[in-house]
Each structure stands twice: as structure tokens, then as C-alpha cells.
Specification:
Length: about 230
């Protein structure tokens, strides 16, 4: 099992020794970055950890500088996770604010999860573009990302995208970011709050596709043969 973030930000849950004694926890946890590996070993020392490479996210180490965005571009990218409640919250937020979004000349792109079932109101709207592009390619064309508890949120942040972090219909919230600028990422708990968050982020006209190379190691461990062997041993 691999953790991207610390227990507090993911679900406000910290494993206990009682759960360990009752065998309600795994024998070991695979962690995909050294920052959290060190933190977990110090904070929750009764669990065994192994540091492994972030294989799913290895492409981010190979990205070269992308072309700059046009200053007048207004592209919104809604990234969906495997969490159906979170995706349904996003669908309702789009439909409720659709007329306002189009009136303010924003373009709507959706990057669905492979298991996502798109509702008819989204699927049949010709002005809502369902992207099949590689995540990094579509991010290079994006001004503001709207997403939640998915590693794509982290990859968006590392590509210097402005982000609106959303919760779900149940009000639960998963924030995969460890340390982040409040000017770059804001939290939206309510569909009615979405417009204000979008206006706030859109005021900042600085746009960049540069990779935050110094922060990658906070989230992802680069592939190496030595670390890969931890999957097997």
C-alpha cells in the first residue's frame, strides 16, 4: 500500500497500537516519497515501512519545460478521481454554474477517471470537452484545475497550475497536497462557493508550465533498482 500524503490531510486518521494488536493494519506500508517515509517512521514507529518508487508518477521526472500559456486563455480542467461521490459533486457544480462559466468565457475540459460514468447532461453537451489526452499534455493547456483527492491534483500543483480543491456530496474532503501556497490552491466546500474561488484564482494573471522540481521529492520517489526491490522483498 502506498501513501502519497500524511494521515491527517487524507482522512484525519492515525493508526493506533490497538489496531496493530488486533491485526487490523497491514504488516507493512509502502511509501512513495522519502519525506513521508521519515515522518511515518518517527511518528508511528510500530508499523513497518518501505520506501518504493512512485511508478505511476514516474513521467513527471521526465517532463521538459512546456510552452507558455496565452495570456488570454481561460481553460478550466475538471479532473475526476475514482471517488464517485466526489465526481458527482463536480458534475453538479458544473451544471449549476454552467451558464455563468460560459458567460465569463471559460472553456470546460473534463479528464475522467477510467471508471467514471458521465451523466447525460455532461456527456451530451457539445461545449464540454471530454479529454482523452495524456494528463501532462492537457495540463499544459490548462489555466485552472478543479479536482480533489487524486494524485493528478499533486501533478497539477507541481506543474504550477492554480487549483480549486473540492469535497464530495457527503461533505468529506481529501486534500493530497502536503505544503501548498494559498494563492495557488484554494478549498471549495460548496457548489455556490465555486464562482468566488474561480474569480479569486483568475485575478492572478501569472501563468506557468514550469515544473516545481524542488518540490517533486516531497511527493514522489524517483525510480531506482534499489528502491524497486522493496516491492519484492
Amino acid at each position: 500500500m502506498g501513501f502519497v500524503n500524511d494521515f491527517n490531510n487524507i482522512s484525519h486518521y492515525t493508526p493506533t497500537k490497538l489496531e496493530k494488536n488486533l491485526k487490523a493494519l497491514p504488516d507493512e506500508i509502502l511509501v512513495i516519497n522519502n519525506f513521508l517515509y521519515s515522518k511515518f517512521k518517527k511518528k508511528i514507529s510500530f508499523i513497518k515501512y518501505k520506501l518504493v518508487p512512485a511508478l505511476r508518477n514516474d513521467k513527471i521526472f521526465k517532463i521538459k519545460k512546456k510552452n507558455s500559456l496565452r495570456k488570454n486563455s481561460r481553460n478550466l480542467l475538471f479532473i475526476l478521481s475514482a471517488n464517485d461521490e466526489e465526481s458527482n459533486f463536480i458534475f453538479k457544480m458544473i451544471l449549476k454554474n454552467y451558464e455563468w462559466i460560459k458567460k465569463n468565457q471559460f472553456n470546460i475540459f473534463i479528464k475522467p477517471h477510467p471508471n467514471t460514468k458521465l451523466p447525460r447532461g455532461i456527456r451530451n453537451n457539445k461545449d464540454i470537452l471530454i479529454s482523452k489526452k495524456n494528463l501532462y499534455d492537457i495540463l499544459s493547456l490548462t489555466d485552472i484545475v478543479i479536482s480533489g483527492g487524486t494524485t493528478a491534483t499533486i501533478e497539477s500543483y507541481l506543474m504550477n497550475k492554480k487549483i480549486i480543491l473540492v469535497c464530495s456530496n457527503s461533505g468529506l474532503f481529501s486534500n493530497p497536497l502536503i505544503n501548498y501556497s494559498k494563492k495557488q490552491a484554494v478549498i471549495c466546500y460548496d457548489k455556490d462557493d465555486f464562482r468566488q474561488k474561480l474569480i479569486f484564482l483568475n485575478k492572478d494573471k501569472n501563468k506557468s508550465n514550469n515544473i516545481q522540481s524542488n518540490n517533486i521529492k516531497l511527493y514522489f520517489e524517483k525510480y531506482s533498482k534499489k528502491k524497486f526491490k522493496n516491492f519484492l522483498n
